[in-house]
Amino acid sequence: xxxxxxxxxxxxxxxxxxxxxxxxxxxxxxxxxxxxxxxxxxxxxxxxxxxxxxxxxxxxxxxxxxxxxxxxxxxxxxxxxxxxxxxxxxxxxxxxxxxxxxxxxxxxxxxxxxxxxxxxxxxxxxxxxxxxxxxxxxxxxxxxxxxxxxxxxxxxxxxxxxxxxxxxxxxxxxxxxxxxxxxxxxxxxxxxxxxxxxxxxxxxxxxxxxxxxxxxxxxxxxxxxxxxxxxxxxxxxxxxxxxxxxxxxxxxxxxxxxxxxxxxxxxxxxxxxxxxxxxxxxxxxxxxxxxxxxxxxxxxxxxxxxxxxxxxxxxxxxxxxxxxxxxxxxxxxxxxxxxxxxxxxxxxxxxxxxxxxxxxxxxxxxxxxxxxxxxxxxxxxxxxxxxxxxxxxxxxxxxxxxxxxxxxxxxxxxxxxxxxxxxxxxxxxxxxxxxxxxxxxxxxxxxxxxxxxxxxxxxxxxxxxxxxxxxxxxxxxxxxxxxx
Length: 484
Known about the structure:
Low-confidence stretches: 5-12
Distance between the termini: 9 Å
Structural class: mainly alpha
């Protein structure tokens, strides 16, 4: 018999043959059921993926962008006319008064008497007595003051222990342990030994001394927030954290024996001049007011607008506080973050434009960087930077989610093809009725019916026409070895 090899793809199933029967060990129905369950699981993952994609995708319309930009512009104008620069700030006076009240409240909390109620100077004196430190020098003698330029106006800035930073805390505790005083002058880190006569840090153990050192640092910082007790007028408060990093750079370089550059010293000198002009932590807090107002306006506008949309769609009769909150909560979704980026970006654009113009005006046509920095709202710049970082994180997350959605779609497509193939195979092998021709041949002489079933089965199995046994004569010839 001539062999016929087909190049078509085929599937080999395990076939068990008995004396008068055969069976397939592969269960197509079971494989199909398992594949369909896996398909349902992938579809569930796709639903979760879509929800994740919504959370990292901004859904702002034209109105959202207009409202956000308007809020930023309004608060930018607010900053220009009400915050301005140190010494000219209308809001700054209110902030100074608020800080003085907080200093008096802290003094009373720490055991201060009635004298702390009326005068902030008395409250500061009480706190300075209670939280003593060895590095509170306002000068180093006439010669030292001339060399180091250390005086009552700049000693809070130059003294590292008065800086509200982690490095400031470190040097404060170091000075209290060693009875020293570290400050930055002329681009160098200066250390005074035996800074205070008879000084001894409280505490009998190292952990106790560390705790007392921290408490002294914190309490003394509060006392100096509105200036020293002996200061006149507004006083010189603690420096802005954003300006203290110029001291930190020099201190770190000196401790690591890295030479300081002219740029480091110029930057530090400019920061000191800005501080002397009144740019301290109180003014930094004043700058935070329009930034905070901008933040609240945008979040409120977002919530109110979404709340009206919710009631417009659902109606009061279908009100659900949980559903309403999910539709208008202004904190975790990408849409409100995008609106905040636009609002703070607009605020910084207006504020930076004003600072640049004032810098040129103050410089008489030449750019004055000191005037520019004093008018630049660093809190707003910092908040805008945070918004940009959040946007970058969302872009990265969205890329990951979209790639996961692509993989899930590919898996689904492959699985659907696999399921379709299983269904087609099941249809091909759905031949239980046709296989009864074996019983017909064994128990009956109705050869015609048996031959018809055999022919139909051969057609289903895709047997070549030349190999099919059509009638009884073909059967007899085949089994007699005569071929077909």
